[in-house]
Specification:
Blueprint lengths: L8 E3 L13 H33 L11 H5 L17 E6 L2 H8 L5 E5 L8 H15 L4 E3 L5 E3 L8 E5 L6 E7 L2 E4 H19 L5 E4 L5 H18 L7 E6 L8 H7 L4 E6 L1 H11 L19 H17 L3 E5 L9 H21 L3 E4 L5 H11 L17 H4 L11 H19 L5 E3 L2 E3 L1 H16 L12 H13 L9 H10 L10 H5 L13
Parallel strand pairs: 2-3, 2-13, 3-6, 9-10, 10-11, 11-12, 12-13
Antiparallel strand pairs: 1-7, 4-5, 7-8, 14-15
Helix pairs in contact: 1-5, 1-6, 3-4, 4-5, 6-7, 8-14, 10-11, 13-14, 13-15, 13-16, 15-16
Protein name: Malate synthase
Organism: Coemansia guatemalensis
Catalytic activity: glyoxylate + acetyl-CoA + H2O = (S)-malate + CoA + H(+)
């Protein structure tokens, strides 16, 4: 077993080859210090989430907070100016921290690359530590990769490499392979601390800096926690406060009511907000899963023009531009379709339309999931945004009330058996891949990650719980869902999906209208934990 040489720190995962260069005593001591200082607050904030949901269940309504009205009403304060490499973010590509994918993303022509330890990565020990190695080499521009056929991947020589941004896991996750004083390390702190410790100064030397995307927050107090961690981390490493930049994904319905406050808490480190659309839809279902008034139709019918989604976008753009930070658009899930020109063109047209809608609304940039889509997104933003960003588009005419953010009445939306079956198929295939170490999976010509799979899982719970009816009148019962799950599982080859039985078990547990786990990733996580001397389930 790997010996950490740091008092109170146990590394339970197997450490091989260069991975020890990441898990140095100094790096682990840094992780431990941040965990010891801030994990108690993290746990308190997670309890606060649970308490707030109990209050919503009891009839409390979401609204803008009266105790922070002074922050919203003060029109004079601004966040930090954009940092080097983050002034023009018109197209950002995202993806897991796999070595080949990192190289392709950095070379893609996008302005920035969000390297994702969260929703598009399955957090196996190997993926995490190799991902940190890949980040180290990417920051230093030394990253290369050779595949089994001998093809060599390396960074382009013209210097047009995307600015690197890293997304650590959310506050709800823990890292089971590292114990600090006998408890699992906060996954957020683990991912952040290792990257920051090894790369902060090297990133500055390369002309950018230690930049992050911050996921799944539910309150401004959670943003305050990140800001406190940033300050201590910068002091420890010896870089000026304000060096770090963090873009917050507004991907929970609760956070939508606290956008000003979240920027304010991070104002010396803020680089804006992002419309994390898929997690946002998941959050709406999750927070109101007990309430039949919030039953949503087929996932494909919930678009960015749906009332609650449109209100959220308008408020985000207005808020960000008032405070002088980027208002980033979201991810279109379409990907190129091989061997079907007609279907491929339809997918490209959807991406183009989505990016045109975003730039005309006032967004400063957008996300794509595939290198082939970078050009499409760039064309729309280049045509409609000649400046590096659109901070000057203030959207002062926008007035968004609480009722607008909660208006889930979708004209023309319906639940169909095809939608039910698609949710089961997507959730099952995604879980099977995630359990096998892949967190970013093309399914039915869409790129699925944990966020999109969460919509499928949560809708199934919601529909069964409330005995929702399909457009033809069929009641969605636990028995119907179980029948379709069995049928969809039978279509899959167990050689291609070695964890299929486990995925069926987990998926089935969420479709009874009874049990509902907060996150797919926490539901499945212990099955990918592999400490020395144990075998994967």
């Amino acid at each position: 077993m790997f010996q950490s040489k740091v008092s109170g720190v146990q590394v339970l995962g197997k450490v091989i080859d260069k991975q020890a260069e990441i898990l140095t005593p100094e790096a682990l001591a840094f992780v431990a210090k941040l965990h010891r200082l801030f994990n108690p607050t993290r746990k308190q904030l997670l309890k606060a989430r649970e308490q707030w949901y109990r209050e919503i269940q009891a009839g409390a309504s979401l609204d803008f907070l009266p105790e922070t009205a002074h922050i919203r009403n003060d029109l004079t304060w601004r966040a930090a100016r954009p940092a080097p490499g983050l002034v023009d973010r018109r197209v950002e590509i995202t993806g897991p921290v796999d070595r080949k994918m990192v190289i392709n993303a950095l070379n893609s022509g996008a302005r920035t690359f969000m390297a994702d330890f969260e929703d598009s990565s399955s957090p196996t020990w190997h993926n995490l530590i190799d991902g940190q190695l890949n980040m180290r080499d990417a920051v230093r521009r030394t990253i290369t990769f050779s595949n089994a056929q001998g093809k060599v991947y390396k960074l382009r020589s013209d210097g047009k490499i995307a600015t690197l941004i890293v997304r650590p896991r959310g506050w709800h996750m823990e890292e089971a392979h590292v114990l600090i004083d006998g408890e699992r390390c906060s996954a957020s702190i683990f991912d952040f601390a290792l990257y920051f410790f090894h790369n902060a100064k090297a990133a500055l030397a390369a002309g950018f800096g230690p930049y992050f995307y911050l996921p799944k927050m539910e309150s401004y107090l959670e943003a305050r926690l990140w800001n406190d961690i940033f300050n201590v981390a910068q002091d420890e490493i010896g870089v000026p406060r304000g060096t770090i930049r963090g873009t917050v994904l507004i991907e929970t319905i609760v956070a939508a009511f606290q956008m000003d406050e979240i920027i304010y808490e991070l104002r010396d480190h803020s680089s804006g907000l992002n419309c994390g659309r898929w997690d946002y839809i998941f959050s709406v279902i999750k927070k109101f899963r007990h309430d039949p008034r919030y039953i949503l139709p087929n996932r494909s019918d919930v678009t960015m023009t749906s009332p609650f989604m449109d209100a959220y976008v308008r408020l985000l753009i207005k808020t960000c531009h008032l405070r002088g930070v980027h208002a980033m658009g979201g991810m279109a899930a379409q990907i190129p379709i091989k061997n079907d020109p007609k279907a491929n063109q339809a997918a490209i047209d959807k991406v183009r339309s989505d990016k045109q809608r975003e730039v005309l609304a006032g967004h400063d940039g957008t996300w794509v999931a595939h290198p082939a889509l970078v050009t499409i997104a760039l064309e729309e933003f280049d045509k409609n945004m000649p400046s590096p960003n659109q901070f000057h588009v203030r959207r002062e005419e926008v007035v968004v009330k609480a009722s607008d953010l909660l208006n889930t009445n979708i004209v023309g939306g319906k639940i169909t058996e095809a939608g039910l079956r698609d949710n089961i198929s997507v959730g099952l295939i995604y879980m099977a891949n995630w359990l096998n170490g892949s967190g970013c999976v093309p399914i039915h010509n869409l790129m699925e990650d944990a966020a999109t799979a969460e919509i499928s899982r949560s809708q199934l719970y919601q529909w069964v719980r409330h005995a929702a009816r399909t457009a033809d009148g069929t009641v969605i019962t636990p028995e119907l869902a179980a029948k379709i799950l069995k049928e969809e599982a039978a279509k899959l080859d167990r050689k291609s999906y070695p964890t299929l039985d486990l995925a069926v078990k987990y998926m089935g547990s969420q479709m009874t209208g009874d049990r509902y786990d907060d996150f797919l990733t926490t539901l499945c996580y212990d099955s990918i934990v592999q400490t020395e001397g144990t075998a994967r389930l």
